[in-house]
Structures are given as C-alpha cells and as structure tokens.
Input
Amino acid sequence: MDEIKLYTIIIFTENKPGVLYRIADMFLKRKINIESLTVSEIESQEMSRFTIRVKGDHLAVEKITKQLYKIIEVVKVLEKTDEALVFKELALIKVATSNAEKMRGVEDIVRMAKAEIVAVGSTYLVIEKAGSEEDIDSLYALLKPFGIKEYVRSGRIAILK
Output
C-alpha cells in the first residue's frame, strides 16, 4: 500500500459560479479530506486558481487529479509535493497583554519568530506571521501561555519552483 503523504493540488478553472462546489463535492465523494483551500483570481480575471492541500496516498491523489478534469470549467490540474513548490500561509494571532511585562515577553517572541505586530490595543497585540505551517504552529505554541484571544490562518498559497 502507498505511503500517506501531504500533497498540494493546484487547479486552474474558468471563473464561474458553482465551480468551488463541484470541486469540493468531488473530494467529498472520494472521501479525501481537504486540509486547506485557497482560491483567487489569477492574472487573467476570467480564471481562478485553487490551491488545495490534502493528505492521502499517491494513487488516490493521482486518481482525483484525473477526475477533476471531468468538471467542465477545469482547465489544468497539477499535483505536487512540497519539494516542487514555494509555499506560505498567513496567520493573525491576537494575544492578551494585560501588563508591560507580558507585552515585552510577547514582543521578544515576535522578534525571535520573525513575525510582525500589526495592531496594539490596551489589552492585546495582534501578530502577523507568514511562513510554513510549521513556522506558524511553532509561533502559536510559544504564544499560547500568554493567552490567545483569537486566531485565524489562511490556507496554503503555492507556486512551482
């Protein structure tokens, strides 16, 4: 049996209503869980680019890659592993900072993690971090003891090397 790995599937489609539903439905029918999904228009505004991160064996990923072409609006599908991509995610983390000492501690971690403080309130800091999934998970773990008030993270964006 094939080894379970993480794959990034990049799909170029015509920018039409209902395409996201049809793509998501295809993954649902094949019982492949979508780990992350990012959609955006590309250079040509009539086209969209879907970047989908999935976990599965090579055979299942190869099969769904071929089946995605059955969707009329799908123009091109690429299935890649991390080695073939340049990729990032973006996270915003709102951390409680009830006193100056706590704020300094958070600022030290932010500097060390090469993140950025993008908003400051009387009881919180909002930190922005762009990087790999591991970079963001690591920063989250370091900030957790300070009290995370809110956390949001994008899906993966990726381009071929």
